[in-house]
Design brief:
Length: 286
Amino acid sequence: MRFQSFHKDFFQAEDGAYSIVTEREFFDSQITLTDAEAEMVIDHFGLDNIQVGNVASNREKASQTFILFPNEEYLHLNLVFPKPNKTELRLYISSKAGFKPAAGSIWFIYKKREQLFLGNMQEKEWNSLNQNDDFDDEYQYSIESSILTGINPDVNPSGQIITQNVGGRVIIARDPRLARMRFNHTNYLCEIDANHETFIAQRTLLPYVEAHHFIPIKFQHLFNKPLDNLENIVSLCPNCHRGIHYAVVDHKYDLIRNIYSKRPQLRKELSLDEVAQFYNAIRITD
């Protein structure tokens, strides 16, 4: 499967692909590169620079250099077209060489800084990539503070993307008044299911819900309009908010589909899977 925006952002990659290592691939110590994987490798090394035939016939040409994620160590693996018609591209994996991912794990390849990187992870680790929001607690607290002040002047009337410097990092600003407007619109209920129970918040004495940006704010660089807008903000109970980040893929996907069905404007712009990929919530196929 080809890297989506989520993966390119996480690995800071220009392009990439990933798939599950099958039992047969692990047993045979070889992976057949398909589609995006093969395209990327051929583009990088050049068709004429890849050995045609078995490894033994030209070991020097068969050996290609990769970089291992995350340590960025050089890695030498054999890469060949085993048949003269070049319809099958085969990468030989080896514990001795330093790269033999286990059956059932995710192996990935990506291009960065004009070099090819290889890596692997257990599927549960892969599905949990980059789901943290370092500033979420501060954001939720600022929403409660906005509720307490009750002041609601015009919210970003210019429609511009606003940034702020936090601890030396430039981040996209999130206006707590917009979240408060969303809470008022939903009557402080969970948009996944209004029957989800929550509790009365100590500071506001209102039902406790959390604001969530459906297209995560970290992907603002992919969009021309601000993602901190009323339609993109979702009112969620704490359980659903954690679930959309940390649940297993199938449950996460169901939560995303539920919210997506209630966002008519978004449905005109992005498919369900295009939204789900921002959470790395696409089911992985062989």
